[in-house]
Amino acid sequence: MARRTKKVGRYGKFGARYGLSVKKRIRSIEIKKSSKYHCPRCSKENVRRVSTGIWQCRSCDLKFAGGAYSPKTPKHKMLESKLGGI
Q: Into how many domains does the chain fold?
């Protein structure tokens, strides 16, 4: 099966609807939520999103709550830097 498009990538499913700025925003969110993150317990890059706000490490099976699109929210990162690590 041939690849659909190079230019629009993941948000090609929207076609000509919704405008470019909305599609770029959705693209960045989808990339953030589907990428792998580091586990707070075992430090491996195996944390994936299970559901909205629920994250799970696939190697040590740790399940924890986090942000909707990334395990650490910007507020959590700010607190972590002020307190010197949580």
A: 1
Residue 79 belongs to a domain: yes
CB 15 within 8 Å of CB 28: no
Q: What is the pTM of this model?
A: 0.75
Mind giving me the DSSP string for 31-84?
HHHHS-B--TTT--S-EEEEETTEEEETTT--EEE--SSSSS-HHHHHHHHHHT
Q: Which residue has the tokens 């041939």?
A: 2
**What is the CATH number for 39?**
2.20.25.30
Where in the sequence is the domain holding 78, given as residue range(s)? 10-83
How far apart CA 76 and CA 67 sit, in angstroms, is 9
Q: pLDDT tens track of the chain, all 86 residues?
A: 566 667 767 777 888 888 888 888 888 888 888 899 999 999 999 999 999 999 999 999 999 999 999 998 888 888 888 887 55
